[in-house]
Structure formats: structure tokens, C-alpha cells
Amino acid sequence: MKDNRLTGLIAGTIFILAISVFCGQAHSSGFVADLVVVANSDTLISRIFVLGQKFRIETEEDGQQIVVIVEQETGITKVINIDEKAYLKVPANDMRSHDNDPFSSLRYTLTIPDAEIKQLGTETVSGVECEKKTVSYDGIDYFTQWVSEQHELPLKIIALNEPDNLVKMTNIKDSTIGDELFEVPEEYTAVGGEQSQTQDQFVEREPVFPEWMKDASAAELVELPMKKELLAGEMIRIKVLAGKDIFVLAINNNDGKSVFLAIPCLGGQPIDDPSKVFAEYGETRMYRMEIQDQAWPMNLTETPDQADEVLIRVDKGQVNMLTQYTNKP
Questions:
Q1: Residue 27 pLDDT more than 90?
Q2: CA 255 to chain centre
Q3: Span between the terminal Cα atoms of the chain, in Å
Q4: DSSP 145-168
Q5: What value, to the nearest 5°, has the Cα angle with vertex 161 and ends 58 and 108?
Q6: Predicted TM-score (pTM) of this structure
């Protein structure tokens, strides 16, 4: 089963899946639209169905029919391969959720406690009047979004560090949408584990700790809030506190790719299976940023009974880390 990379390099033709609405099931008012994602001069056109805080994206990649379901309230993403009758269910901070959800970077940036939203007037997007807003943090503008009062998702997004890339909805129509669109058919098989970079299937690997984990306990224990540039191989530790989440905003300060890890630990050991934690793809605590100034916001929600520290390490490139405690909801 393949991961569909809506926000990455895009190849293949576009095929819009037909859907059926069955009688007798719950239906509510939402909207449907064509979803246009432009990334690195490639354009992907998908179909999106939005109902409240849930949305479903239908597309095709490499001849396979892919469905992505995002539940914003629960923080769950499902990636479904229709042809293989298989699906992944991952948390919103998983790399595969980010790769399949073109709204995720903006959504997480808006959760930054000190994020600023600047009103820039009104503009029309696909025939709908929208408020144009810029989202900024620490004096840097990250996104411009066009928001309509009648629609739950922004109708247009531009990442200001990638001004030629955009997300935009067209052919927007109000529609009655059934809850079954956001459910995985019972006969589909859940798959997990780590995805090989050279094979399509999912494979399990033997747990292996990298050599640098032996030095993790000697890493600097920082106090929050904190701003710090980390170079490749450098790491810090953050204490997990009761009643607090740890908010991390990582910004790629490298002219090219940077990779970092954010690993909850208990007693000096990762709380997750190391075969997942230290993999660049799959169920992982490793995060990639492909271009300079790309931002990756995240909220680490572990409690002291789950983890006593979070270890942050830059594996490749150099990253500006901005971290602070936030109150749990």
C-alpha cells in the first residue's frame, strides 16, 4: 500500500472517484469541491467532501485509488487504498498524515499560542467572498489564507516561503453528505508497521537503537520557553510536566533538506518501538523539511506517567527550535 503525498512531488493522472449515498444513513449539510494542490510546479486535482470538522479527499496516484479521511476534532487521519482494500490509521502528527493532508501545516501553525493573524481585507475565491488573513509567528509571516464564514476549511492557502505552491478549492457546491463517507468499510484490512523506502508493502524491522542514543542522557536539559538553533547531531532534552503540553515549532535553517526527531522517553528509553521511532518513513518520530524556512509545528501531549522527557535531535541539516509549555485542554 502506498502513501499518497498530496503536499509533495505529484505524478500521474487524476481520477475522481464516484460515491454513493445510501438511504437510511445519517446525512448532514456540508459541501463538496475540487481541491487543487500545486507543489513544485506539479498540479494535483482531487475531490474533497467536507462535513463539519471532517473531510475526505479522493484522488488517484500511480493508478491506485486513494482516499484520505481527516477527523480534525479527534486528530486522526485514515489513508485508504481502495484497490488493495487496506488502510492506515495514524495520528495527526504522524509524517503520513502531514503528507496526505494539505491543510495540516496551517492548522498546526494556528495552534501556536503566540501566533498572530492579520486581517488583509476581503477577496473572492471561486465565487465566494472570503476574508484574507496572514498567519505570523515571532515576526515571520508563514501563511496567507482565504476564509469564508460559510465553509469550515480555508478556500485558498499560500505558504509564504513557497509562494508558487498553493491549495485552492474550486467548483464549490453545498451538498448533503452522509457520515458513511468518513468510515472505513468493515472488510478493509488495517495495516501498520514501517514502510520500506524501496518496496510498496509494509514490513516489520528488528528494533535497533542508533549509536547516538547512548549519549542522549548527557544532552542539555533546557528550560522553556526556548529558542535555539540545533545543527546536525545536536540534541536537547525537555522535561514533561503535569498539566502541560510541549509545543514545538521547528524551522528549517538549511539551504536544502533538514530532518529532526522529537522522541518522548521514559527512563532514558523511547516509549515507542525503536524500529518505528528511527525510521525516516512510516510510523515515526522523525520529521522532514525539504526547503529552507519550511516550518513544522507540533504539540507533544505525553503525560508524566507516559514519558518523563522529550528528546529533540537534528539528524540532518540545521533547525531553529522554538519550544514552550502550553496548558492542556
A1: no
A2: 22
A3: 35
A4: EEE-TT-SS-SEEEETTSTT-EEE
A5: 55
A6: 0.69
